[in-house]
């Protein structure tokens, strides 16, 4: 590959919309790879732009960087991934997206009654605090060790 076919970190940032710091971070994580010049400057192959587009799409779906790394590890190393390779990876996102869409529709459909109910209670509100298991531990910092908490006196203040 000719050096003119390689992109600088600034060029990749400009073309991908990622900050250079994010590119260096993704490089350290192994999500993207670079080579180094004699002057120790990073250079990226043009295919990195597709990987970055994939990372952005995966993050928009809600994948963690660990999940992104697992997905990228499934891509062929000996050749540039094809459209079919990318489609195969993203196919598994449908169920996750459908769950997110369903949760958002439920929120949307109940929002009018939620705002108008007037409960103003994190303990009771199913929308702003669903399945709050820590509320049963009492008010305050639930993660603060019980033995270090002030004893409850039954009085306010």
Structural commentary:
- The chain has six helices and three strands, in the order βααββαααα.
- The protein has 157 residues and is mainly alpha-helical.
- The protein folds into two domains: 3-91, Multidrug-efflux Transporter Regulator, Chain: A, Domain 2, CATH 1.10.1660; 94-132, no CATH class.
- It has a three-stranded antiparallel β-sheet.
- Strand 2 (35-36) and strand 3 (42-45) form a beta hairpin.
- The radius of gyration is 24 Å and the shape is elongated.
- The N and C termini lie far apart (72 Å).
- The mean pLDDT is 80.
- Keywords: 2Fe-2S, DNA-binding, Iron, Iron-sulfur, Metal-binding, Transcription, Transcription regulation.
- Pfam families: MerR, MerR-DNA-bind.
- This is MerR family redox-sensitive transcriptional activator SoxR.
- Residues 6-74 form the HTH merR-type domain.
Descriptors:
three-stranded antiparallel β-sheet, 2 domains, 6 helices, 3 strands, 157 residues, Multidrug-efflux Transporter Regulator, Chain: A, Domain 2, mainly alpha, 48% helix
């Amino acid at each position: 590959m000719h050096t003119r076919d390689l992109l600088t970190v600034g060029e990749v940032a400009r073309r991908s919309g990622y900050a250079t710091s994010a590119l260096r971070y993704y490089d350290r994580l192994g999500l993207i790879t670079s080579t180094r010049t004699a002057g120790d400057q990073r250079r990226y192959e043009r295919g990195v732009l597709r990987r970055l587009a994939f990372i952005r799409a995966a993050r928009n779906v809600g994948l963690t960087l660990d999940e992104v790394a697992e997905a990228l590890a499934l891509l062929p190393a000996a050749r540039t991934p094809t459209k079919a390779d990318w489609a195969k990876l993203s196919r598994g996102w449908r169920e996750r997206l459908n769950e997110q869409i369903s949760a958002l529709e439920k929120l949307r459909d109940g929002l009018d009654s939620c705002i108008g109910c007037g409960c103003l209670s994190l303990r009771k509100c199913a929308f702003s605090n669903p399945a709050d298991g820590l509320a049963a531990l009492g008010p305050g910092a639930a993660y603060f060790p019980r033995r270090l908490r002030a004893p409850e006196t039954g009085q306010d203040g």
